[in-house]
Design a protein that fits this description.
The complex is a heterodimer. Helix content of chain A is 28%, strand content 10%. By secondary structure, chain A is of the alpha/beta class. Chain A starts with 8 loop residues before the first helix and ends in a 22-residue tail after the last helix. By secondary structure, chain B is mainly α. Classes of the chains: A alpha/beta, B mainly alpha.
């Protein structure tokens, strides 16, 4: 059974307030029947040094990705992962993590590929919980094994492949990487290692909106009006637009996908998880360097 | 091709990791993370003496000193925040594995040493590269300091 939603005013202004909970709400609801809290971090050891009491860990690298093919786990794989974590199909799942929920949003996006209905983010994530001095536990939480059904993954509504992006020209693309990656000055994040993209630049026509602009100083999402100003104002998105977001491997753009879909109410947003590590290495796909978005390939200069 | 031998103190750590199953290897890395000592006072007052390793996903600063002895004994110093346990763990392994060795022995450590810890499945390639970068940085600084 779904657990009640967080009624706070900030969330009420978003298109889907039921997708967020506050740290206060979570503290009050820990232990509620049907609620499972999941921590998903970039740093694989962070959960172990202290996590929200009762939270289970989902590791994006070893548990959500296929071990061989560059793809996500399949239906049986997801079912066995959920069962092992004690998550049922009707559980209310609240995910939180480090770095403004960057990896938590990625995990939420993967849960959505399998149509898990009630999955929410903790606004502000791990850092806010800790900054507020809330309780942490170092005991690994174990939940009784559940019986999660095998559900086939449905990619097409929220996931774009390279071919989809080539067919998407003329509709909005959002590049959520850093400005330096967008212009092609570098092929990886500042302070992060080179990850093997051969060429620098961006997909023609993509608007540059670095993902972290959606987060406030304390890691929470910006309020509705500020997000509208960024995405509808600066980036020019309009209701009814089909949007594709991408980054380097699809994690940062999951965060933007969450913002566009659940906070701003766009109904047709896909995450291109192949992102720059695929596009920047692919043969004969068009690339634009520099600050200009560029034009639709084959039309104009 | 046989891998070049590691200095004893580093080889022991690699063996400890190799003898464990994956979840316990991560636990051991966490122990190294917890055991990473605080910087000595003189570096706290002079943070400019530390060098940032930009390849690491979390902030990591390191520096080293070479002794005046014949072997040019290497002393290592690391600093990384508690919210970066994986980075701290790597630093802890390198500290215990390399600190106190002669400069020449540090320079002879093979560049692929981090891959021998058996963590390449559990930890992303990006992070493993961060540890390789740390080792590379240490060797470069030893080379510069002993030139």
């Amino acid at each position: 059974m779904a657990v009640e939603t967080d009624p706070q005013q900030k969330f009420a202004e978003y298109a889907h307030p039921e997708r967020l909970v506050s740290t206060q709400w979570l503290a009050e609801h820990l232990g509620t029947d049907g609620l499972v809290v999941v921590e998903s971090d970039e740093d694989v050891l962070l959960y172990e040094i202290g996590h929200i009491p009762g939270a289970v860990k989902v590791d994006w690298h070893t548990e959500l990705n296929d071990e061989v093919t560059r793809d996500y786990i399949d239906g049986p794989g997801f079912a066995s992962l959920m069962s092992a974590k004690g998550i049922s199909r009707d559980s209310t799942v609240v995910i939180y993590g480090d770095k403004s929920n960057w990896w938590a949003a990625y995990a939420l996006w993967v849960f959505t590929l399998f149509g898990h209905e009630d999955v929410r983010l903790l606004d502000g994530g791990r850092d806010k919980w800790i900054a507020e001095g809330r309780e942490l536990s170092t005991d690994p939480s174990t939940r009784p094994q559940s019986d999660y059904p095998v559900v086939e993954r449905v990619d097409s509504p929220i996931r774009a492949y390279m071919g989809d992006v080539l067919a998407h020209f003329g509709k909005p693309l959002i590049d959520v990487r850093s400005p330096e990656e967008y212009t092609g000055a570098r092929t990886h994040m500042p302070s992060y290692p080179e990850e093997g993209a051969l060429r620098g630049g961006h997909i023609p026509t993509a608007a540059s909106v670095p993902w972290a602009r959606a987060a406030a100083e304390d890691g929470t999402f910006r309020i509705r009006a500020e997000l509208d100003a960024i995405y509808r104002g600066e980036a020019g998105l309009k209701d009814g637009d089909e949007v594709v977001a991408y980054c380097r491997i699809g994690e940062r753009s999951s965060h933007t996908w969450f913002v566009l879909t659940y906070l701003l109410g766009f109904t047709n947003v896909r995450n291109y998880d192949g992102s720059w590590t695929e596009w920047g290495n692919a043969v004969r796909v068009p690339i634009v360097k520099g600050e200009q978005a560029g034009s639709v390939p084959g039309i104009g200069a | 091709m046989p891998s070049p031998a590691l200095p004893d103190q580093l080889a022991e750590i690699v063996e400890d990791f190799q003898s464990l199953e994956e979840p316990d290897r991560l636990q051991l890395l966490l122990d190294f993370s917890r055991g990473l000592p605080e910087l000595p006072e003189r570096f706290l007052e002079h943070p400019e003496l530390l060098e940032r390793v930009v390849e690491c996903q979390s902030p990591l600063f390191l520096t080293l000193e070479l002794g005046d002895d014949k072997e040019r004994t290497v002393r290592l110093f690391f600093s990384a925040p508690p919210e970066a346990p994986t980075t701290r763990g790597f630093a802890g392994v390198l500290l215990e594995g390399l600190d106190g060795l002669p400069a020449r022995a540090v320079l002879e450590v093979p560049d692929d040493m981090p891959d021998r810890l058996g963590l390449t499945r559990a930890i992303t390639p990006l992070r493993m590269r961060g540890m390789t970068a740390m080792l590379g940085r240490i060797k470069r600084k030893v080379r510069e300091a002993s030139a």
